[in-house]
Amino acid sequence: MDIFESLDAIFQPKSIAVIGASNRAGKIGHSVITNLIDSKYEGPIYPINPKEEQILGLKAYASVSDVPGDIDAAVLIVPAKFALQVTKECGEKGVKGLIVIASGFSEMGKTDLEHEMVKLAHGYGMKVLGPNIVGVLSNSDKLNASFAPCLPLPGGAALVSQSGALLIAMDTSTYTRRVGFDKLISIGNMSDVDFGDCVSWLDADENTSAITLYIEGNRDGRKFMKAAQKATKPILALKSGISAHGAAAAASHTGSLAGAAKVYSAAFQQAGIVQATDLNNLFDRTLALTLQPPLRGDNLLIITNGGGVGVLATDAAERYGIPLTFAPKDVQAELKKHMPEFGSAKNPVDVTGMAGTDWYVESCGYAITHPWLDGLVVLYCETAVTDPMEIAKGVKQAIDQSGIKDKPVAISFVGGERSDAAIRWLVENGIPAYDAPDTAINAMAALREYAKIKENAAGATEYKTSGNREAALKIIEGARADGRDSLTEIEAKLVFAAYGMSVTKNILSTSEDDAVRLANEIGYPVVMKIVSPDILHKSDAGGVKVNVKDDAGVREAYQTILKNAKAYKADADVHGVVVQEMAPWGTEVILGSVNDPTFGPTMMFGLGGIFVEVLKDVTFRVTPVSPVQAKNMLTEINGAPILEGVRGEAPRDRKALADTIVKYSQMVYELADEISESDANPVLVYEDGKALKVADARIILKKK
Amino acid sequence: MDIFESLDAIFQPKSIAVIGASNRAGKIGHSVITNLIDSKYEGPIYPINPKEEQILGLKAYASVSDVPGDIDAAVLIVPAKFALQVTKECGEKGVKGLIVIASGFSEMGKTDLEHEMVKLAHGYGMKVLGPNIVGVLSNSDKLNASFAPCLPLPGGAALVSQSGALLIAMDTSTYTRRVGFDKLISIGNMSDVDFGDCVSWLDADENTSAITLYIEGNRDGRKFMKAAQKATKPILALKSGISAHGAAAAASHTGSLAGAAKVYSAAFQQAGIVQATDLNNLFDRTLALTLQPPLRGDNLLIITNGGGVGVLATDAAERYGIPLTFAPKDVQAELKKHMPEFGSAKNPVDVTGMAGTDWYVESCGYAITHPWLDGLVVLYCETAVTDPMEIAKGVKQAIDQSGIKDKPVAISFVGGERSDAAIRWLVENGIPAYDAPDTAINAMAALREYAKIKENAAGATEYKTSGNREAALKIIEGARADGRDSLTEIEAKLVFAAYGMSVTKNILSTSEDDAVRLANEIGYPVVMKIVSPDILHKSDAGGVKVNVKDDAGVREAYQTILKNAKAYKADADVHGVVVQEMAPWGTEVILGSVNDPTFGPTMMFGLGGIFVEVLKDVTFRVTPVSPVQAKNMLTEINGAPILEGVRGEAPRDRKALADTIVKYSQMVYELADEISESDANPVLVYEDGKALKVADARIILKKK
């Protein structure tokens, strides 16, 4: 049995056994049977309970082995201590998938039991959803295999939630918020079926039009990203716990800057996942993504009957990164015909409080067809003289009659009961409608982010190494053979060079004479630095001399550096003094990597100095980083204009910098088993065409 | 008649005349009479219409002069061309205040007519609300003197809205959102009664517990701020049009950075006004501010039955600047008693999904009384086994029984109809309750901001000049006598010095010999700069030489500077070359001022260089700036840690810097009629105790 067949059984079972079914109200085993009956589940339901003849009118069986027919999925509600036995019985019976509502596993410290259950299930080809979950709900399958009270309001979204309580609360909330879901999936401890599996399965499910995720933590980040990248449906994620993840041990700058929020945001971006900021935002964006196509350009037109909501929407558009521009002259001229003298055909188009349904209909019908327009937002303030429902129906009809289906529309009606009824009608008829102008703009922003993120993610898997992994490994093995878990600067630069990065020339001297010879070989001026695996912060130890200009200077520097090193740490293992090309001044940039517990090797980019130290102005990616993503990284930091050239300076060589990011990312990706953290700090970036130099490098190895 | 008496008449009329009342449905004059009757207004209503005997059953009069009794307020719905005549009639009759719903005034370009009407009204002691408004609505006065459909849901808030359409839409929306208002006031063109008047009047109104403002633009910013500063009730403002204001002409850095959003935010902060970010936020925060006391400390405790919503609330608390801390050990120990083994007494306190009403009641009742706690947030996820209404009532009772009234409580229930009913019940019983955890935290954030902002605003009016205004004026007059509208650097520094600021020594030389003599007087090294009112950007003109070390250097620099200046602008009026003390290096800071059309002289502070040029990391205040506010400004920029000392540097002299901000603000405040824009850039700030020096100064005069 392949994975998908087992997932089919879990999410769309043709028959279902409930192990631990009960006749006692208040028991979960009672709720699940009740819910299966109430949801009008059409397949056979087999209550399993050795002490009962019948449960809620259904024939009960002592064990799954007693069931006459095939069992597609089994819901486990037995105490954890019976889990293995029951799993075995299910396997023997030929059950295809397990929905383990039972708790008392890894969430209570019993991780081994959980692992054993999964292993046992896999032996029979069964996947395990849970344990410690609420269950599975599906409108299109008339399936409420859970102890959540009812099937959600029908709609196109599928929710996968890591919090059971939130899933139950959201279930009933779909009715009051009028946001429809086809499926609610409780994912619990994720012992086996994880977010990646759910995304893959839901993307292939014909009843799902958008996938909504509530994520607290994730196990296999890479698998999840791959599933999302492959998906053709919009995926929306709310990641909670922005401070829970904690920063990794701060052996490097990157380590101290990599928090869960930044790394998850990077992963979402690379995987083409739109983010929600909070619970309301999750519902609002789900509605838009299930009902409307992506917003493929920035030309958003707003039509309103009130200046106030128009200005609020304009502000929101700017906040969300879709600043309004005026429509072309011909559009303005045509729109002017459907408003009073004192109306405005600019953007927002203000048809004024005098506007009845006609003006809305004519403006919308015209605007949606114009090639300039990418998306339409309709705002309405309830007035005594207009009927919200009539306007809603008029706008819907105008859009339908235009035949346009690839441009999104979002609507806001501010008002009372009548407006609320119109909002409900619009949503039921496929147009996302909200009670505030900002929220309608937020809907458009979600559709715009989706379009952009998919465009960017397109190139995200592009990957062709340019590195010499063997050469790099040899250097690392050398250090390990020395019993070290960090590389010297010279070694680190050799690893960087093996991946095609431009590093400053850098040769180890072990005597004064040696140093003088090397300095002459490299060419004056030079930089000299202590080389010792025991001294990571060389400047602090007085182990660095810059701008050394001649032979005499080299000799003096050599002595001073060794003396300082001794004073700093008497028993330091000193390899010698490195003589290094003194790279000319350039814009200081920092690259770095850290191994994230969820996503593996991730990479950071930022400007050096105060930008990284004070402003923490950095951006992350999961490696490897594609050329497209590397280019995006350069524009994501607040200090981006520095690279474009400010205060009369020439633009920096961003092409070379993006290329180095790609190579760096390949290095940490391919050496994921070896490198724990790394920094290139500073990287000196020169003006366009003059490339860059990695002036200092640090690599911390994974402990083995 | 004093202003308040006329405002009393407008907002709480004892009798009312409607000039332009009509029997024809659809006419505003018909709606207003209908609404007055429907709202059960208890005073006499006098419809005025020369063509009718009766209007909607009320006796009509041809003119206000025909009305037998006194008229407190008159509502004007006549065409604009009759405005003056009607105003005169009202004045003669002894009407006390005018509510001018009529449009066709300044919004249509007829500003003179509007001014004339106000002037005429003032002659009779009448204030004018409007024109171009919806009207006035008041629940406590049973008054709907407007064409908005109904009185709003009763409550403690008063809304003053500059958008009529939004006011009407919000009116009905109060019922669906369950946020109550006592008054809705449409302020329209603000020809006379403005936001300042409304705030002052509402602060004294016993039926108002919080004041909510929707502001598009404002006229007299200072009056508004004073009214708000004096107010003892919470004020909440939504300012729309963040990009509409536009930056002033960019003759200075400050000018190009002063946008409406930043200046309004500064003014709100100084005036003790809490801000709303959007329309939903306005409703949510209004609810909290009307129902709960301020949150006087950061010790917020969250009690929840679901981990998911707990984490979301934790994230939100961090976003809103109230990061959670653990409760003291004794609190945790006590709370542990009211939850199962696997619950958590940390913060959020997770009483788990097993929690019934009891555990909620016991936890809330205990926590609210503990001295550690400043505010309480209760979260609930609807479950099948609990009754939301029972929990709502239990929590409310626990809080009531504690007798605690000075600590705020906010609640979030996520769920369906039953949770919605519980939310409504809580709100009706004085506890702000919402449908998402983030929103409950937002409510607490509003109450925290209110407490903090009031604390800060307390010192905001402190003002004692330290400047010599006469000396400064003399310098400015000298420049004006020259026909100039900008000061030279020397003049500008003299003005700065007159206000007690420390500037670099700076003397004009008009010959090489002169320059050498001055350089010796000041002491080497020196800086030399061109002095010409025609050359504002001295560096660009090659008009600056730094680190001039001896007499020969001075002579060479003198010649080069004059030559460069000639090449840059042949006909420049060159006053000579300034010889200046070369201040040692310090942290570069920029101070500046710009005259805002609404708030008058405002002041900016930021770090110099890329911080201001690339990152636009600056903060504003309306002048004069109090010592408390000056200190706050230093912490508001992202680069604030720079001043605290980073990378091993000593902390900068923030005391001297705050003191200079205060003095600078006094300068631009007292010379508001003279100075249009100014910059001190850079100001070099030294380490603690070593003060600072203004190294360059620029003052642009107002054109006269």
Structure explained in plain terms:
Two copies of one chain form a homodimer. The relative contact order of chain A is 0.07. The longest helix of chain A is centred in the middle third of the chain and has 22 residues, at 437-458. In chain A, 40% of the residues lie in helices and 20% in strands. Chain A is of the alpha/beta class and 704 residues long. In chain A, the strands form six sheets. The first copy, chain A, has a seven-stranded mixed sheet, sandwiched between helices. In chain A, strands 24, 25, 26, 27, 28 and 29 form a six-stranded antiparallel sheet that branches. In chain A, helix 17 (469-481) runs antiparallel to helix 18 (489-498). Chain A has 24 helices and 29 strands. At the A-B interface, helix 5, helix 11, helix 15 and helix 16 of A face helix 5, helix 11, helix 15 and helix 16 of B.
Short description:
Two copies of one chain form a homodimer. Chain A contains 24 helices and 29 strands. Residues 244-253 of chain A have low confidence and may be disordered.
